Each structure stands twice: as structure tokens, then as C-alpha cells.
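Recap quiz, item 2
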Amino acid sequence: MPLYEVLLQQFANGLILGSFYALVALGYSMVYGVIKLLNFAHGDLYMVGAFAGFGALSLLSGWLGGGWGGIVPAMLFSMLAVGVLGVIIDRVAYRPLREAPKLSVLITALAVSMLLENVALAFTGGQYTAFTTSLGFAGINFGLVHVTWTQMVLVGTSVVLMVVLELFVSGTRHGKAMRAIAIDQDACRLMGIDVDRTIALTFLIGSALAAAAGVLAGVYYGSINFFMGFLIGLKAFTAAVIGGIGSIPGAMMGGILLGLLEAFGTQIPGIGSEWKDVFVFAFLILFLVFRPTGLLGRPEVERM
Amino acid sequence: MKTARMLAAVGLFALTLAGASAARAADVTIGAQVPTSGSEAPYGIDMLNAIRMAAGEINAKGGVLGQKISIIPGDSACDPQAAVNAASKLVSQSVTGVVGGYCSGATLPTLKVYGDAHVPFVITASNSTELIGANPGNAFMINSTGFDQVKTAVNLFKARGIKTLAIVNEGDAYSANLAQLTRTAWEKLGKKVADYEVVNKGQQDFSPVVTRIRERNPDAVFWTAYYADGALLIKQLRQGGYAGMIALGDGNNSPKLFELAGAAAEGVFCFSNPTANFLPAARTFIENYQKQFHQPPGPYSALSYDGMMLMAHAITVAGSTDRMKIIAALKKTDNFPGIAGPISFTPQNTLARSNFVVLLGKGGQWTLYTGPGAPGAK
């Protein structure tokens, strides 16, 4: 392959990888933006989403087939189910700790993450599950660069979900309430905003997006397991920080940037992929040293 | 708090004593160190089944030294810390010997635990070359080591006219060890390693690595880590348009690979220790195993069965349950007839011959490859 085609292919790879990171990073960023909680269970909701989607697709593919006709309803089901799960987690594990020190909630989030992982482990026996769909490799060729329809639909779906979310948060009454809670919870209560319900809504949307990413990942990679949320959770967190945690467009940009960094990091001449993560995270440190608030984050006096 | 902890400790101690004395009544106790929990549990349970089956057959014929063999499982969970805990517990229960050992990373730290207590240890699956140097002398490896796997791999590559090679591993003790040994052996032949990649376990997306491999365009890609991620790599290599040869290390011999990789696994090679279904001498073993456990025996069951049989043989030869005498007897093992082939040991206590075979993915399952470059073929 000539170099420019290699680079073009790596760009496509990075974009696809990045859109997964971005979708998961959105939920991280939203929750942090509203209640200043690093929800470490978020990556595991991605995993639960993949399994919920897999279960739904197994039931639905009888009538609707294993193509997009079956995948879309399965994905919607998974988003709803995991969205509700997110709300339940907030109600049971986080809401009672709303006034507690931030560290207690953080540890609770870690506990929820372990809980979800180990429940999934118990259910699946640690086995890898094949996520079979009938999507082919067909697509468009740009020279030697091959991009499948599936990949295009994936990136497209991510973009649509992100745009809808941004419109929701910036344009609707509920979105305005979320932004207001982020600034001052007590003032919001005084102004008659139902704070707990708005936070629940934040969890609903954030978790549903993670589930969407989980189903898309299952469809795309064809294999799901109980541990799949761990690594992407870390990466998405990184993406959210790069983008400026709390900012929705920032999370998108951070995710895409991280995906591109990883793809091109593999390509640096002279060093192999052994050094990819060194490169990516060294960049992250430097970036944060010079721009601690991330790409689009606002400077803040109080931080955890 | 303190009292509660002390009470718990006393309770545990009492339990251990009770367990040990109950087992000591008349039996020869053998520890089975295998992962019975965690991601590797399916393999570990399989090995435990085979060990129990062997003990059952020995007991049906009167046991050893006129005593019955009883098996005490120790869960290594494929985790170094859990394995050391399990090993210490087995030692405290005064087992006569230990059979098992899966996941080299978990087996490695247990060598010292058994070594200090002079417990004879027959290792039936773990085969990292790191175990050889760390062996205090009481452990015996009846699975061929990484050196043999590299030899098998290099022979196959040479016979199939491979000139440039890409090696991909996951940076863990097992897969990095195999990858480095292969790189050294391949470069010693004056051939080229076109690409050497390390990926993260569970990373799912290998497309950047796939693009790099396509850029370097090696004749063959060698994946040295386990099947779950291997399946995804194979799929993405083929999806990305790589058409060359793909070979996999011995962590990939699983039917699950075909489920996860689908059609992409067709024509893929895999180096493996002999699994029961490719061993002519194991026919009765397969039938009995199927009858007893209602499933086909897994990858390391034949070796585990052999390991238990070898241990019993050594106890008989030693004529006592004296651990030092058993170790001496194991050391002198000369062509012990295992179902996976004859067992003798090198001065380093490793299997004296290579038991590696080459498998080929065909029709959604592994088949024995006998073409050019296969072990034993000319």
C-alpha cells in the first residue's frame, strides 16, 4: 500500500474507533457536568447494553432477520432497558449519597462497576459470546482503502445521536434544567426545578447512549464479553477529559481525537504498536499540562 | 474487629486441621491445582475431571500402595495470587503430590511454594519457558515447552515458503515469551520479521494494526496470544483484505474460535499440544470421559489424565509416600506410556520430545494438518 492510502485508511480506522469512544464519553461527560460524579460504572453499562442488544436480537431475528431490520429494534430496546437500569443505579446507589463527600460517591461508582461486571461474569460463565449478524463486508473503495456500509452506518448513527443530544441539552426545557443544575443545585430547587428527576433523566440518556455504543460494538466486532466495558470505559474517560469534561461537543471531539491518535500512533515510523499507548498517554499528559481544562472545558475553581 | 478477625483465623485453622486429618485417614491425597473459577474455568474444570477420572480408575484397580487416592482441588483462578494461596493451602493439607498447572503466569509463583515443601508437582498444561529456570527441581513438565512450539512454527513457515513474518502478541508473560522466541529463531535463520506488534487484551478494534500489517504485507501473520482476541484479529485481517497465511499459538485451540471468527477462520493454522481427539491411544479415554461427564474432553484433559497416572506410577515405584523418593522416581521416568505419548524427562525436568501438532481450520473446526512442514512429515 502506498503511504497516502495507509494514512487515509488509518484516518478511517481512527474515525470509527473514535466514534465509539465519543458515544461512551458523552455519558461520562453529561453525568460529570450535572452532578460532578465520575461514573465509573458507565463502561459497564456499555457492556450490559451489548448483552441486552444481543438478547433482543436473538429473539427478534426470527421475524426481522439478522440485518439492520432486526438490529435497529434490538438497539432501541437495549437503549431503553439500560437507560432504565442507569436510573435505577442512580436511585439506589447515588441519590442517597447526594450530600455525602464526593469520594464516597466515587467509591460507590467503582462498586457498581464491579457489581455489574461480576453479575455478567456469573451469567455468562466468563465465556465470549458471538454476536452474529448478517451484515456483509460490502462498501465503497477509495483506491485500496475499503470502507464498509456497516462502518458508515456506525459513524452516521453516532453522529446523529450526538447531534440530537446536543440539540436536546441546548434547546429544550429539560436541557436547560440540566445546565442549571450543573451551576447551582440549591438555587434550582428554590426555582421549582425537580432536581432529582432531572438527574434521573441525565442518567437515562447517558446510559442509553452507552447501550447504543455497546450494541453497535457487538454488531461491528461480532464478539461480546463481561469485561468489554473496562478498557473502553478508561478510554472514554480519557476522551471526556481531553474534550473538557462536562462539555458535550468536547466529549465528541475528545473521542474522535483519541481514536485518531491511537490509529496514527500505530503508524509512527521506527516504533511499533508496543509504544502506541505510551505515545497516546504521553500526549494526554502534555496536553493537560498546557490546557488543564481540555479542549472545550471551562476553567473551574473547585475540582475533585 | 480484632476479636472477630482472630475468631475467623482460629476457625479457618480448625477447618484446615479437620480437612487434613479427614483426608489423612487412609488415603493418598493428591492436590489438583487448576483454575475452577474465572475466565479460564472451563479448561480448569476439564482438567480436574480428567484427573479425577484417572484417580477413579486407579482406585478401581486397588489404588496405590494399597491405599485409595483422593483428590483435593486447589483453585488457581489463572491468577498468580490466587494460585499461591491455593498452593499454600494444599501444602498445609500435606498432599503427597500435586498435578495440574494451567496459565504459566499463575503456575510460576507456585513452584517456590511446592519447592520449599519438597512436594512433587507434575505440570500438565503450563509450558512457558520461564518455568524451566524457576523450577527448584521438584516440578516436572509433561507438556512441551515454548521452545518446541517455536521449532514447530518455524518448520511450518519454512516448508510453506514464508519469507517475511509479522508477529502479534498481547504483552503478557505467555504471549510475549512466545513472540520473542519466534522472532529470535526466525531472525537467526536470516529471515525478516516485517512487523512486530503488541496489542491490549480485550481491545476489540485491531484495525490500526491490520492496516500496518497490510502496509508491510508479510507472507504470514503469527498471533501468539489467546483465541478470544485472536478470533477478532483474524476476522479484521481478512475484512481488511489481508490474504496471506495466518498462524496461531497454542492458546487458540478452541472450537469457540470458529464461532467468533466465522468464515475468516477457514485455512488458518494453529500449533497445539495433542488434544484427545487427535490421539489414537486416547479412544477409550474419550469414550469414558464422555460417559462420565456428558461432554467431550477439552484441550488439556488428556495431558492431565497422563499427569495423574504418572504421579501414581511414581508413588508405586518409590514404594512409599515419601515426597523425596517420589521426586527421585519421577526424575527416572523412562518412556512412561501416556495416552498423549511416551513420557521421559530432560535434565531440566521438561518433556524429552516435542508433542506439538499443527491444526488447520477446515469446515468450522480444527483438523490435523499433515501437509508439508507438519511435525513428522518430510
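The mean pLDDT of chain A is 88.
Chain A has eleven helices and four strands.
End of item.
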